[in-house]
Every structure is written in C-alpha cells, then in structure tokens.
Amino acid sequence: MVEGVPPTATDEAVTHSVKMGLWKSDGGFDAYVPHAMAKLARLPRGAALLAGLAVLTLVVALDGAGRSFGLRLVPFYVPLLCVMSWALPRRWAIGFAIVTAIVALLPDIWASPTAPAAATAGNALFRAAAYIFLALLIAAYRRAYDEADYRAMYDGLTGALNKLPFQAAVVRHLTAARRGRQTLLAACIDLDGFKAINASYGAAAGDAALCAVSQEAMSAVRGSDLVGRLGGDKFGFLLGAASTQNAEGLAHLLHQRVTTTLVKSGLPLTCSMGALIVGPDTILTEADLFESAHALMRRAKAEGKGTVLTEAAPGS
After folding, report:
1. Which of 26, 49, 72, 186 has its CA 20 to 30 A from that of 283?
2. How many separate helices (H) and strands (E) can be counted in the chain?
C-alpha cells in the first residue's frame, strides 16, 4: 500500500503515529501509555489472539492453584480482556469476552464441585454480560482512536499524507536510503492557475481537481513511495529510484501523468514541478531537500509554467 493512501476500513487501520515515527515519549508512565496502545494495535490479529488465550490459560491455572492459599486472581481477567478488546476486531473481542467468562468459572467449579448448576450458569451469564459490555466499550474507544489518528495522518480531501506525517516519514526514508545506498527523488508540484479556478468555477471544481491529481499521482508511484499534501495546491513526493537516470525519468513520468489528468479535467490548469535527485551521500536534511525542490518548482513557474525542472542535490 502506498503510504499516502488511506486504509480501506477503520478495523484495518493501524496506529500511524508510531508506524510513521511521529510519536516520541517525553518520559513518565502516562507518556508511555499511548505508545503501548499504538504498539498493541499493530499486532497481527492471529498472534494477538493466541497470546491472549495463552495468558488466559495461565491466569486460570494460577487462579485455581491460588485457591489453596486463599488467593484469587479474578481481578486479572478484566485487564486482560481490556487489552484483547483493544488488539482484536470487535467480533473477536466479543468472542474472547465470552470465552473468558466461561473459563473464569473453572477455578470456582474446581473449588466447589457440588455447587448448584443454576447458580453456576447464572454466574456465567452475568459475568459474560459484563465482559461483553466491557469489550464493546473498549472496541468503541479503539474505533474512535483509529478515526482520530487517521484524520491526523491523512488529508481529508485528497487522501494524501498531511504535511507533518509526510515530513516525519521523509526523515525516516532518508535515513534508510543512506544506510542502503539508495537514490531518491524529492519533488514538489504546484497547480498553475489554481486560484483562478476557485474564483471562476467554484471551490467544488478546485477540490475535484486536487482529488484527481492526488489519486493519479498515488497510482503512479510504488508502494514504498511517499505522497503528501503540503498545503493548498502543493504536493510533495519522495520516490525510490534505481539510479540518477531512473530518478529523472520518474520525475518526467509523474509530471506527465499529472498533466494528462489536468487536461482530462477540462479545466485550464497546468502543473509545475521541481525535482531533486538525492544520492546516498547528500548532506541535505529533509527541510533542505524540499526547500530546494520548492525553489526548483518556482523556477519552473517562472520559466513558463507547466514544466518540470530536475537537479542533483548537493553531495549526490
């Protein structure tokens, strides 16, 4: 999946702030709670379920053994259920709640095998209802958490990354590219005449053009590439390339794809692009790279608009 493309469903969403390297702890227990929640949200469902069942089995065994010493571990079922309700989809969480309610009765049955069946069944029913309610409550909070995280990560109109997540992801990709000796392409595009479109055709036409450009650009790049909306009608890209020549070709291909989309829109719009070819030995930071790419884009506009200018980054 392209990192600038939103997930197709909230249940499939991961906590992007950790994935993209945005979250940083300032220390203290309360600072680590969001980090732990984010890490937990990234666990594969199957692995999370197996781990939860293993812990549940251990708690039941310890609860049963502890009865001989007057110890009861009943309170430990609740935090385990909370953790699993956060890590699992809602239906799975409900199922885990029911299983927990049933197996949590085993130590009571072992301790009092002659207890009335009706009392045992009633206890199981009430406990299952309470656990299901708790699972639904945690699952609802998880959904709200994912939706808020999604809105912070992605631009609501175009689906591209917002500026801050894009910048954070660029820093991470630069570090990985330097380590792997990979060439990158850092590019900025701007729609020429966009303000006039909003004035003459209305905001809806401008929004449609932005969405079309974003979707076309994201379909033109690879799954590991980055697409971000930097503000207004400006978009940023960070693409992996096999070589300097390949990077230059990617810049022209991307510009052509976006330009073709604008022509099909029927609006009097063109696209100017500034593209910086980034070698593994470049000394520029993320901010420097995109400042330079933005300067190239302004030069492209000054030289006639609707064009693309490429240049090698210092040290590349």
Report:
1. 26
2. 12, 5
Other CB atoms within 10 Å distance of the CB of residue 7: 15
Burial of 132 (0-12, 13-18, 19+ CB in 10 A): buried
Q: Which of 275, 276, 265 is nearest to 213 (CA)?
A: 265
**Per-residue tokens: 7:** 């997930």
Among 39, 34, 37, 50, which Cα is nearest to 92's?
Answer: 50
| DSSP symbol at 313 | P
pTM of the model: 0.71
- Cα–Cα distance, 229 to 164 (Å, whole number): 10
| Domain definitions of the chain by residue range | 10-153, 163-312
Task: Give the separation between CA 275 and CA 250, rounded to whole angstroms.
Answer: 10
Digit-coded pLDDT (tens) for 210-228: 999 999 999 988 888 999 9
Rg (CA), the chain: 27
